[in-house]
Amino acid sequence: MKKRLLGTLMTIAMLTTSLMGCSTGNTTSENSQAHGTENMKGKTEVDFWYSGGKTAVKVVQDIVDDYNKSQDKYFVKTVTQADYSETYEKLQAAIAGNVAPDVALIEKDAARVLSDKKLVEDLSDRIKKDENFNNEDYVSTFFEQAKDDKGKIYGIPAYGTTQVLYYNKKAFENAGIDPNSIKTWQDLSSAASKIKDDGQFIYGWEPMWGADNLTDAALSNGGTIFSEDGKKVTINSEEWIEAWDGFGKWIHDDKTMAIHSGGQGWEYWYKTIDDVIQNKAGGYTGSSGDQADLDFSVVGAIEQPAWKNGTESKPVARALILSILAKSSEEKQAGAYDFMKYFTNVENQVKWSMSTGYVPVNRGVLNDEGYMKYTNENPQALVPYTQAEHGSIYPYDPTNGVVKDALKIAADKVEIDGVPAKEALDEAQKTAQKALDEVLTDKK
User: Are residues 339 and 270 in the same domain?
Assistant: First the structure.
């Protein structure tokens, strides 16, 4: 969902300029240079594409290296991309050019689209025959995101992410606020006002720029994205408008909250974090993956609250999916599946979560002595996990992202331009509904 690109991108050797539509200017990544060919002799090579920030890339490569040393049958070769979107874009081009990798780490909707087109493997039979695989070992919120509505399994969740509240300890202490008292966004609004009034901090709170925070709040106010029958986009309901207008008021009228927007790459994200670390803002709403970059002597973490009394906290908990490409040979698919199980075993999920802050998908981490000791000493590490267990699963978007794009535009109007939420969301709903109607018509 985020993270700055540190390091250059791997040139996909057989992916030509005409295939990509333009020259990307990528160069071989440091990871692939260092780990691309060593100890391959006699092993089946499995190509793996993924993305992540500096810490995440290093941990993934460490796990890959350990896997390659752990057995003599397969060798996983890695290629890093800038972000999840670029991975998916290049993956589509590579599939068209018959140069796709064997396994890729992609977002849930991307995996679902490829599954519907039969471009990634259905793992249902493979899992059913595997006596050592148990679906119940995985957090259901995440495993369900690797399945379609007919039960087809198009991947295995690699890790999860959800946005939590990171508060400045000094700001809360100075204003006499107990972090555990924040049960609703109305409570947080009051806290933000107290922190600003205290005079030592410029802003009480900084929601992260974009539609994600606002969507979480709407869902925690009882809102939905689609109607139960899937025929109507419901992003301009009263629940959505109330939540989004709340943020518009806090940012533009009360000025107790603020956002950073624009800039290059993830510049806005890190400016937001810096404001909190540098005692300019009382806290911010950010990714579980931020934990690798935060100083927890300065900040603490708590779960996102409900919108108001009488509602439930239901922020989105998102899974990143490991999927096997359909055109890979059976031998390579077997190797990819073996690696996917290795990546998601308890030991590696503990390592992954402790190093990056992302949410582990294997329930067994809670019985791991090292992980429990770590989370007892670092309670912020367990906050995203406990939030994910009651989080919302963002529904599959049959419009291929039109709904999300419409929400992004609406969020900018509310957060940056100060447009009333009803106006912004009505327009977003109209755009999204048109796209959904076209999809439903095509299916008839």
Answer: no
